[in-house]
Amino acid sequence: MGTPRSDREAQAAEVLDRLYEEYPDSTISLNFSNRLELLVAVVLSAQCTDERVNEVTEELFEKYRSAEDYAEADEEQLAEDIYGITFHNNKAGYLKSIGETLRDEHDGEVPDTMAELTDLSGVGRKTANVVLQHGHDVVEGIVVDTHVQRIARRLGIAEEESPTKIERELMELVPESDWQQFTHLFISHGRAVCTARNPDCEACVLEDVCPSSKLDGDVDLASGEAWG
């Protein structure tokens, strides 16, 4: 297996340095032009690919332009409008409820605090962090999606299993100035190289510092299971 740096803070710094060099243009891949569109896109992206979300929202954002539009939408029609999105029926309910809350409590605007955002239907801390970072330029934490969760554990940077606990671990290790980009870099790397089922360790810029490297290691620290 690769040989990680002397401690987790040093490991995180080394990983970030290499990923910044490998993915200099890494950024959010969802398409949006305002805060409401960002919020909707991130809600739809849960357990769904950004590519599919972008396909659906191209027409959705033409039809629904305000919180009021979502609030007044027929839920069945809204579900049809986002058909193809994972759990589209549930998410239609979320979007209608979000529209109602934004209209009734926030003058139709997307709020800029973690507490107010996580009070919205279908919005957890991960979604709220994305909206705060890219909609309001407020960085309160690190977005821990499946890529971040998997790769941070593989690299020995995180030891916890739940996204909330992993976020707390990472926030102690990673400089605040890197919190936002940390997620984009890990997502880029997770899509290109460090995939869930069959990571391309031979092509990985982190292989020599990765304790999960399957080139000479036995266990995937992300799952705790032996490599197949």
Order of helices and strands: HHHHHHHHHHHEE
Strand count: 2
CATH topology-level name of the largest domain: Endonuclease Iii, domain 2
Query: Roughly how many Å is the radius of gyration?
Result: 19 Å
Q: Which runs of at least 5 residues are low in confidence (pLDDT < 50)?
A: none
Architecture (CATH level 2) name of the largest domain: Orthogonal Bundle
Assign a percent range to the helix content. Answer: 40-55%
The total count of helices amounts to: 11
Average of per-residue pLDDT values: 96
Strand content: under 5%
**End-to-end distance:** 15 Å
Shape: elongated
By helix and strand content, what is the structural category?
mainly alpha
Oligomer category: single chain
State the major sheet: 2 strands, antiparallel
How many structural domains in the coordinates? 2
Model description:
This protein has a two-stranded antiparallel sheet. Helix 5 packs across helix 6. It contains 11 helices and 2 strands. The protein is elongated, with a radius of gyration of 19 Å. It folds into 2 domains: 103 residues, Helix-hairpin-Helix base-excision DNA repair enzymes (C-terminal) (Endonuclease Iii, domain 2), CATH 1.10.1670.10; 101 residues, Orthogonal Bundle (Endonuclease III, domain 1), CATH 1.10.340.30. By secondary structure, it is mainly alpha-helical.
Short description:
By secondary structure, the protein is mainly alpha-helical. Helix content is 53%, strand content 2%.
How is the topology of this model organized?
Blueprint lengths: L7 H15 L12 H11 L4 H14 L3 H5 L3 H7 L6 H18 L8 H5 L6 H11 L10 H9 L8 H11 L5 H14 L26 E2 L4 E2 L2
Antiparallel strand pairs: 1-2
Helix pairs in contact: 2-3, 2-8, 5-6, 9-11
